[in-house]
Each structure stands twice: as structure tokens, then as C-alpha cells.
Write a structure and sequence with these properties.
The structure holds two protein chains of two kinds. Chain A is mostly helical. Chain A has a domain of 102 residues. Chain A contains seven helices and no strands. The model of chain A has no long low-confidence stretch (mean pLDDT 92). Chain B is mainly alpha-helical. Chain B has a domain of 105 residues. Chain B is flat and about 50 Å long. The mean pLDDT of chain B is 91. Classes of the chains: A mainly alpha, B mainly alpha. Chains A and B meet through helix 1, helix 2, helix 3, helix 4 and helix 5 of A and helix 1, helix 2, helix 3, helix 4 and helix 5 of B.
């Protein structure tokens, strides 16, 4: 049943994303693109783009949006509950012990250990996103002739705006969106 | 304070923060701090910082985690239910509507061009996020985290190892390091 698999997939995504919305990206990629084959790389980037553009926690936005795309309104609700439920259970258990003992050294030590791996995992999702933005797909090997030069220019400009002028993600998305609407329409 | 009023304020605060804050958890959490520490004065600064650290340690979206902690702190399990609903209902509504608009207009040429432009922007955002996070790990100047990062990168990208295995192994390394450090500390402090 689609709702059950949707719930389980997003429960898993919520359960194993340590470090906020970006940490959910590699899990969303693995689960929704590779294991379940529910969405394409293009849809994956669109989900991320729209989740960044809208208010609210990014992981929740992504869950509601992909759930809706995969199985309609009820799918969106199921995915959102799935991604939230692990937090509801685990955070309250942690809170209980925290208020009782005021000490979570071991738990926080484990999380410290996870952090470098999480960075690497986000980097690996980043490679997928980068390849899709530059070549239109993410399958190896890529044909260098497929490269989108406009995309390279936009990418470099966006990186420059963020590093040099501290542009926020939403500003970057809006600017590249307007630029894309103009440049690609007249090309 | 009356119970009903407490729940109403918890719900309204988390709902509005989630409804109107762009930029995800890292922007929402500082605003929660401002709301509950400075404006309402319900939680003191030090405790709030501990709650935020705790929220970042747990799996899941950090804005959701922090809202659960605030609700739990103020009114136990029912409080946590109220704040988590306040946090997830706005995105649930907004993204559902947006999903239908997206499906209706995705094939429009102009929409496609705009999204194509945005793809490059999003790629740059992710590269920037990864760079900042990786630099934070490297600047600690500890050998184990850097090795774990490189090993996970190779295992994840080249060998396509399942993410859950990577997380499990690095959690065990974190556990071992913590226990080792704790032991070293107690040995150092204890009588000779």
C-alpha cells in the first residue's frame, strides 16, 4: 500500500537525519530516487528549491511536497506525520532524561561523532544536485558536451554573491530564478 | 497562568514562527529563542541554549525538535503536542497548495526556465553549506573527525554504501571517543 510505504520511508528519513533539513537530503535521495523510484533527479531538485523558497522547516516542506506529488493530499499528510513522528518520540525521551539528570554527555558525544559523516553525506547529495544542475542528469559517465554553460555562470555568480556579499539562500534562488526566466527565454 | 491560555500562546507562537519565517530551522530557532526568552520570559537564556543544543542532537528537523522541547518544558507531553502541531501545520498547508500549483504549471516554458535557473542557485547553496560545515570540522584540528569525513565521503560517493551503515559506524566511533575521553578525565582527576 502506497500510504504505508510512504509513511515508512519518511519515518526513516526523520529518524536518521541528524543536523536539520540538509541532513535529510541524502536520505531523501537514497529513499525516494533509488530505493522506491518515486521521483526523478529533476523533481528532487525542484522539491529542494521550493522547500527553500517557502517559510517553515525545510525537511517538513520537502516531506509535504513530495508526499503530495507521490500520492496526493493524503500522501502529503502521511509523509509529514512520518517525518515528524521520530522527533516527537525521541526528543521527549531525551527531554525526560535531560530534565531528570541535566546531563547528556554520552548522547552528545555520539552526535559529535556523527557530524563529520553527516557533512560527507550532504556533500554526496550535493554532488548529485550539482551534476543535475550542470548536465541535466546525474548518471555516470557524463558527456562533457551536455554541459549547460548558462548554468555554470549562474552557479559561479551565486557562489560569489553568497561568499562575498553574504546573500541568503532565498535571495540567491530568487535572483537565479529571474535570471533563468530571462536568459533561457531569449536563448 | 491558566492552562488554556498557556496552550493557546504555545500554539500561536510556534504557528506564526513557522508560517512566516523563511530559511528553515537555523533561522526559526533563534526567533523561538527571542520569543520565549526575551518577549514572554518563560525560559531563561542558559536553559534555552541547552534546549537548542539538545534539539540539534536529536534526529529530525531542528525547528520541530526545538518546538517539542519548548512545549515539553512548559506543559509536558500535551504541551509538546501543541507546539509540534503549531510548527508543522503551516508548511503542511502551504506546501500542499504549492504542490498542486507546481503540478499544474511545471510544463509551462517560462516556469521551466525559471526553475532551470534556480537549479544552479540551489547547487551553489548546497556547495556553500557543505564548505562551511566541512571547514568547521577541519578547524577543530582533530584527526578522527577529519578521517571519518573523508572515509564517509569515499564510501558514500564512490562505493555507494548505504547511508544507515555510515551513520551507525560513525556513531560508534563517536561513542568510543566519548567514553575514552570520559575515562581519561576521571582517571586524571582520581586519586593516584
Amino acid at each position: 500500500m502506497i500510504y504505508l510505504s510512504l509513511f515508512l520511508s519518511f519515518f526513516q528519513i526523520g529518524l536518521f537525519s541528524f543536523g536539520g533539513g540538509y541532513a535529510a537530503l541524502p536520505l531523501i535521495e537514497q529513499e525516494l530516487i533509488h530505493v522506491q523510484e518515486w521521483i526523478s533527479y529533476q523533481q528532487f531538485i525542484d522539491i529542494l528549491t521550493l522547500s527553500e523558497m517557502t517559510p517553515g522547516p525545510i525537511a517538513i516542506n520537502a516531506a509535504t511536497f513530495s508526499g503530495n506529488q507521490i500520492a496526493g493530499i493524503f500522501g502529503g499528510i502521511v509523509a509529514t506525520i512520518g517525518v515528524t513522528l521520530p522527533s516527537v518520540i525521541i526528543v521527549q525521551i531525551m527531554a525526560y532524561f535531560y530534565f531528570k539528570y541535566q546531563n547528556l554527555t554520552v548522547v552528545q558525544g555520539i552526535i559529535q561523532g556523527l557530524r563529520p559523516a553527516v557533512v560527507a553525506l550532504i556533500a554526496s547529495a550535493g554532488v548529485t544536485i550539482f551534476m543535475t544542475a550542470m548536465f541535466g542528469h546525474s548518471e555516470w559517465p557524463v558527456n562533457i558536451a551536455d554541459i549547460n554553460f548558462v548554468s555554470i555562470v549562474f552557479f559561479a555568480a551565486a557562489l560569489f554573491l553568497m561568499r562575498k556579499y553574504k546573500a541568503s539562500p532565498i535571495q540567491v534562488i530568487l535572483i537565479t530564478g529571474v535570471a533563468g526566466g530571462i536568459v533561457y527565454s531569449f536563448l | 497562568m491558566e492552562k488554556k491560555e498557556l496552550y493557546t500562546t504555545l500554539f500561536r507562537s510556534t504557528f506564526f514562527l513557522s508560517m512566516f519565517t523563511f530559511g528553515g530551522g537555523y533561522v526559526i530557532v533563534p526567533l523561538m529563542e527571542k520569543k520565549f526568552v526575551n518577549e514572554l520570559g518563560w525560559i531563561d537564556e542558559d536553559e534555552m541554549l541547552n534546549l537548542i543544543a539538545l534539539g540539534q542532537s536529536a534526529p529530525g528537523p531542528i525547528a520541530v525538535n526545538t518546538s517539542i522541547l519548548i512545549g515539553y518544558r512548559m506543559a509536558g507531553v500535551p504541551g509538546a503536542m501543541v507546539t509540534v502541531l503549531g510548527t508543522i501545520l503551516p508548511p503542511l498547508g502551504i506546501m500542499t497548495v504549492l504542490a498542486y500549483i507546481y503540478m499544474a504549471v511545471r510544463d509551462n516554458v517560462l516556469v521551466n526556465n525559471v526553475l532551470l535557473g534556480m537549479q544552479a542557485g540551489v547547487a551553489a547553496i548546497i556547495v556553500n553549506v557543505v564548505y562551511n560545515m566541512a571547514m568547521r570540522i577541519i578547524k577543530q584540528k582533530k584527526i578522527i573527525p577529519v578521517l571519518v569525513m573523508i572515509a564517509a565521503l569515499i564510501a558514500g560517493i564512490i562505493f555507494q554504501v548505504n547511508i544507515l551503515w555510515l551513520l551507525l559506524v560513525s556513531a560508534l566511533i563517536g561513542l568510543a571517543t566519548t567514553l575514552f575521553n570520559l575515562k581519561k578525565k576521571t582517571d586524571g582527576e582520581g586519586p593516584k
